[in-house]
Each structure stands twice: as C-alpha cells, then as structure tokens.
Amino acid sequence: SKKKMDSILEKYPPKVKKNRAKHILLKDSKEEQEIQANTRTVPGIITNRGCCFAGCKGVVLGPLRDVVHIVHGPIGCSYYTWGTRRHKGRSEKGEDNFLSYCFSTDMQESDIVFGGEKRLKQAVKEAYEIFKPEAITISSTCPVGLIGDDIHAVAREAQEEFGIQVLAFDCEGYKGVSQSAGHHIANNVLMKDVIGTGDAETKPYAINIMGEYNIGGDGWEISRILGKIGYHIVSVMTGDGTYKELKSAHKADLNLVQCHRSINYIAEMIETKYGTPWLKVNFIGIQGTIDSLRNMAKYFGDETLIKKTEEVIKEELEALQKPLEIYKKMCEGKTALLFVGGSRAHHYQGLLKELGIETVMAGYEFGHRDDYEGRDVIPYIKMDADSRNIPEIHVEKDESSYKLYLSPEKLEKLKKEMPLNRYDGMIKEMKDGSFVIDDLNHFETEELLKSIKPSLFCSGIKDKYVAQKMGIFSKQLHSYDYSGPYAGFRGAVIFAKDVSMGMNTPTWGFITPPWKKEPLLEGKVVEEVAT
Ligand code: CFM
Ligand code: HCA
User: Fold this and answer.
1) Which positions are catalytic?
2) Domains in the chain: how many in total?
3) How many CB atoms are closer than 10 A to CB 323?
4) What are phi and psi of 359, to 5 degrees?
5) Residue 499 lies in a domain
6) How far apart are CA 277 and CA 213, in angstroms?
7) CA 500 / ligand 1 centre spacing (Å)
8) Is residue 41 a part of any domain in this protein?
9) Percentage of the chain with pLDDT > 70?
10) pLDDT tens digits, one per residue of 466-522
11) N or C: which end of the chain has fewer CB atoms below 10 A?
12) Does the C-beta of 62 come closer than 6 Å to ligand 1?
C-alpha cells in the first residue's frame, strides 16, 4: 500500500511530488505522524475545495432563516449556489423563512468600473422594504474586494436608516486557501455583533447546538432526540437557526460542537467571554449518538436526566434493531473511501463500521491539522501568509454575564472523562494501514479508485460521477444525494438503507466504461487543400 501511493506520486513533477507527499500518510500508531493541511492547493491541480465566500455565506450564515442574505457580486456567485447545500428550514406560523430566496446585487461591468456601493445600498433598501427581516447580511465576492467597495459604510448607514442590524462580511472568494477562511470570518462577526445582545429566558438543561447545519434534516433528528430527553435548545448554529435565537446563545449552560472545523472559533470565544464550556459531540452513527447523549447527561449530572437518557436510548435502539439487521447483512465486509469537507470524513467512520464497512482511506478538503491530529497540535501549527490574512478577534471575560454551571474542580474532573473543550481529531480513531489524504485531487481519486476498488466512494458532486462511471457506487456525503436525514438513530437506518441499495444494485456489473470499448477520440488526419 505504501508502494501504491509511491507509484501515484511518481507521476508528478518533482516539486509537486514533494508537496503532495506531505499531505498523505499511512496510519501507523507506532510513529508520531504529522500531516500538512490548510495550505494552498498547487495551481493546475483539480481540487474539490471551494472558496471563502462559500464558507462564510454558504455554510455558516446561509442557514439562518429569518435573515435576508445579500450577496454583493456578479449573479453567478448567487445563482450557482442557490439551494444546493440542502440546509433545510421550517418556520412556525407567521415566522420568517427566507431560505428559498436568492438575493444578489447582480453586479455588471459598469459597477466594476465605477464602483458598486450605490447598487448595494439600493439592494439593502429593497430587501428591507419588501421583506422586513430581523437582520440583513452582506457578503462580498471576489470583485468587491478587488475594486474596494466599502460594504461596511453601506451597512452602517443602512442600519441607522432602517433600525435593524446590517452585518457586513469581508469574505471575498480569494481569501485564504479554502472555505475554511470563510467560516472564521463569519464566526468573528456573529460573535462580535450578535451573540450576547439578546436576553431570552432559558429553562433547565439549556444548550446550543453548534456546527450543525440541518443538511437533509439532520438537525431535526437531533432535536427530536434531545427534545424527548428534555433539553432546552437555546440556539442552533446555524441549521434551521434564527438570528433572534442566536442573540441569546450566551445564556446556555453547555455548547455542543458537532462540526469542529466550522464553529470552533465561536465555541472557544463563548467559553472565554461567558464561561460556557463546549462538548465535542458526534450524532452520526448509533454509538456516536449514544456516547454524546450520555456525556451530556453526565455534564448536567441530574439523576432524572440520566435516567431519561437511558430510557430514550433503549426505546430508540429497539425501534431500529430489525431494519438495521437486514442492511448490515448487505454491508458486511465492504470497504469505503471517504473524502469530505472538514468533519464528515471523520464523523461517518463510526456509522460505516457499525454496518460492517471498513474505511480504508479518509481525508478532508480543508480541515486543519487539529481536525486530523487533535487540538493538542494547535500551538505547533506554522502560521503562513494565508492564515495571517484572516483576522483573529480577541474577547475578554464579560463580568456581568459570565457564569459557571459547574465548579472549576468538577469541570476538570469531567474533562478527563469526556471531550470537553477537546477534539482529538480523525487520525486517532483510524486503523493502522489506512490512508489519510488531505486535499485529495481528481488525479489521485482516479488512481486510488483503480487500485483500491472500494465498494463505496463517499464524496461530493464534483467527483461522484467519475467513480460511478468506473462502476463504483458513490454516496455524496455533502448533499446526501437528496436523501437524509442521516444523523441520530432514525438517520442511521436511512443511511444504511441508501448505501445497501447503492452498493448492491446489479447496475454496476453492467457498466463498461466507454474507454474500454473504443478510443475516446476518433478521426483521421487529412491534408487540407487550400482553395
Ligand atoms: Fe462542517 Fe458542514 Fe463539513 Fe463544513 Fe462544507 Fe457541509 Fe462538508 Mo459540504 S460545515 S466542514 S464547509 S460538516 S458544506 S454541512 S458537507 S464541505 S464536511
Ligand atoms: C461548498 C458546499 C458543499 C459542496 C458540495 C459538493 C456542500 O463547499 O461550498 O462539492 O458536493 O456541502 O454543499 O460543500
């Protein structure tokens, strides 16, 4: 298998080979292993990564449903991302839900030449007058940064005029090396200007669900379980979430962190400012869900809550046992390659294992070293020009709102028993001999699929059909191929059903890739006669 990788790398020019080798490792628990991550993709390589704007507007802000999200830029940035991420939202009667809309300033060539501020101002005015939202966000695309429109001045003016918050985000697509930069920029503004401005009443067992975006309804399955046990969800960041609730997020007694990559900045800053610790959870997979629920109950330490947690676990397990048995038989002994953004390549490994599927390769598009190796490596991560370009904000203890749910002694004790303020990353849980590959590209994808021939390739829209044309079933772990939810107890069964069907359909045996039958290009060279 080391040979396999070497033969793939051999095909690169020497400089590229040297670069890519640092992003690849073969897990060996006897060695101290380090991976390079969150660095620039080599120009010319076909990467799956997205841009800073995608991470800010698309990922973190977009799911807030009572907000009008205006994209300042040419229409393509809005149009081609309209509804594609499947972060679902549902509103009670009379509540706002703008998720199905797409708001853009539709910049033209003349705006690039003469400036787009006037156009932006007009867009904010129209959005306010027509929709009367709770708040408005403005997200910058590449050209806005290049021509230097002052989106903050426009936002400030509009805020005064209309009396609602207008938040501006400098998330030009070219910033940083991936979506990850956009997560950080969105986190900073939400922390600085939104969280802490509300004063909603809270009930016992008050929690925030962070880094959960309700893709395919995942968040709804998680809230169903938490609601049954008796938790009070103060806010969700940000799946089916609202700006209104986000304002009071500082009131919760515990923060749950599902996707560490996209929200760890807010989790850390809330702890510094308000004292609330965060617990790393994983609601993908049955054991992951059970462990997360038990840790939560133990944190609150209430006997009735602990008892209720066990009752709910028992009830849910009974309901899924029968269907799961059927699918397990269809999955047993299969293998998977996983390549997803910044957390799912880790989160799905447990669920696959429960079904009998072994993960032989996993990697992130844009995860940082801490998402691979655990947060302990953070002090040793080399800063480069690209990461220095993303502002860090510093928060201080808020004397009036700071509160500790547990005594510092109790918290220290619990930290030894559960991942409180801690994330150990993906690699630790992987088997020796499995591949970890950062920022996998299309050349490597094809080569790996050819040599490993996995039963399942979990990735996204950009490479799904490359795999399927090679006769390998591919399950999108971003959009879930229009299925879901996959989280929690019920989600595990839906996932099991989808991958069982996908892997076992006889279709794959009927596929002969076209290049096996005939050359891709046909024709003959004829000498042209000039007339
Ligand atoms: Fe977090 Fe996400 Fe992911 Fe992500 Fe994304 Fe996504 Fe993803 Mo696509 S926030 S890192 S930037 S879990 S959009 S809901 S599926 S790449 S693995
Ligand atoms: C994004 C969004 C994306 C893309 C999915 C894919 C998503 O990165 O901007 O490439 O299939 O989950 O919708 O990650």
Assistant:
1) 51, 54, 85, 183
2) 1
3) 14
4) -85, 115
5) no
6) 21
7) 24
8) no
9) 98
10) 999 999 999 999 999 999 999 999 999 999 999 999 999 999 988 887 667 777 677
11) C
12) no
